[in-house]
Design goal:
Elements (H helix, E strand, L loop, with lengths): L10 H18 L2 E7 L6 H8 L3 H16 L7 H13 L4 H17 L2 E8 L1 H6 L4 H19 L2 E9 L4 H13 L5 E7 L11 H9 L3 E6 L6 H8 L5 E4 L7 H9 L4 E3 L1 H6 L11 H6 L4 E3 L4 H4 L3 H11 L4 H14 L4 H18 L1
Parallel strand pairs: 1-2, 2-3, 3-4, 4-5, 5-6, 6-7, 7-8
Helix pairs in contact: 1-15, 2-3, 5-7, 16-17
The chain binds zinc ion.
């Protein structure tokens, strides 16, 4: 990092001098994205592309995009965000729509130098819409394979159930995840409203998921307290925790997560946009690091929150004064937390270190 000493410049001016090289450093690093919802990754241009032949939707999309831009992607509260997420998913009417947003997402990942992504598909929402999970998966799988070949981004899938729809619904999602396990579905997870779908409801479903040979993750400690994280780890066997924002509220849960080396999928802009944090700087990420926890950085629903993985890393670096070795360490954590074979992890680690060494 270029050091500027005694220059007489103010903080903002110093930032402006330092920013391009920090951003360039981050942009060049090969990256891994672990917490990324397909339906939350549809940028305005893709929404327009999706709805261009549907005049009744077009105006809704225009209103939606300008509202988001006007409100700086703030939803006010988590329920309003869930409603907005549902609205976007309704625009995905056919398997071809899902294929289009997959292609555009992989192109966006390639632009950011993301080498590997585990993309979450809200299979539960597809069931809720009474669409065919099979037809959608065939379409997105083909779109991802084509983009992978063209752009060199590797993709695997996580099937996500809507927790407030209950355990029977989750079991249906799991059945589909199990069916496509040999075709790139690596994990099963739950998301949505933690208060209305407590983790303990899903103990049996998670046991079945593990028996099927799937990895398991869970959004936990996002909108409710640390007890939800404890249950996700102890009863569900979650291998990674989505958000874990409230973790520090209970030292015994911190100890549990630390001892088991459970990676946290941290997504600070998401937590601000859904009204859980007032400012990015309020995220406990630096205290997570101090507590010896395994932190990964992710963008969650980047298009719905007006962010990207590169921006999340850049904002975190600036907000928490992360050093470049710390930025690289967070990247290493993501690679090791990925549901990939050891040799694939080792290859990504080598690429990361080679690039970090070349650009520092
Ligand atoms: Zn999420």
């Amino acid at each position: 990092m270029r050091k500027v000493r005694n220059s007489g410049l103010g903080t903002e001016e110093l930032k402006a001098l330092e920013s391009p090289s920090l951003d360039a450093f981050i942009a060049r690093l090969p990256k891994v994205e672990l917490h990324l919802h397909l339906e939350g990754s549809i940028r305005p241009a893709t929404l327009r592309e999706l709805t261009q032949n549907k005049s009744w939707l077009w105006q809704k999309v225009e209103d939606w995009v300008s509202e988001r831009e006007r409100d700086s992607y703030a939803y006010g509260n988590f329920q309003k965000f869930l409603a907005a997420f549902a609205l976007v998913t309704l625009m995905l009417e056919a398997p071809e729509d899902y294929a289009l947003v997959t292609t555009r997402l992989v192109e966006w990942l390639a632009e950011q130098n993301v080498k590997y992504a585990e993309i979450t598909l809200s299979a539960g929402v597809i069931l809720w819409k009474k669409q065919s999970v099979e037809a959608v998966f065939e379409a997105i799988s083909a779109a991802a394979s084509e983009s992978e070949r063209r752009l060199g981004v590797r993709v695997q899938w996580i099937f996500d159930a809507v927790r407030q729809f209950g355990a029977d619904h989750a079991r249906q999602v799991l059945d589909w995840a199990g069916r496509f396990r040999s075709r790139g579905v690596v994990a099963f997870g739950i998301g949505g409203d933690e208060a209305r779908g407590p983790a303990e409801l899903f103990t049996d479903v998670y046991r079945q998921a593990r028996d099927l040979g799937l990895h398991v993750t869970a959004h936990a400690g996002e909108t409710v307290g640390p007890e939800s994280i404890r249950v996700a780890v102890e009863l569900l066997g979650a291998e990674r925790i989505g958000h874990g924002l409230t973790l520090l509220g209970d030292p015994s849960v911190v100890a549990l997560v630390r001892e088991r080396r459970i990676p946290l999928e941290v997504c600070p802009t998401s937590n601000v946009a859904t009204g859980l944090l007032e400012r990015f700087e309020d995220h406990p990420l630096p205290r997570f690091l101090k507590s010896g926890l395994v932190v990964t950085l992710n963008s969650d629903d980047p298009a719905m929150f007006g962010t990207s993985l590169n921006e999340e890393v850049g904002k975190a670096a600036r907000s928490f004064a992360l050093s470049r070795p710390q930025i690289v360490e967070i990247g290493e954590n993501s690679i090791r937390a990925a549901f990939l074979a050891e040799d694939e992890q080792a290859r990504l680690l080598r690429e990361l270190h080679a690039q970090a060494g070349a650009s520092s």
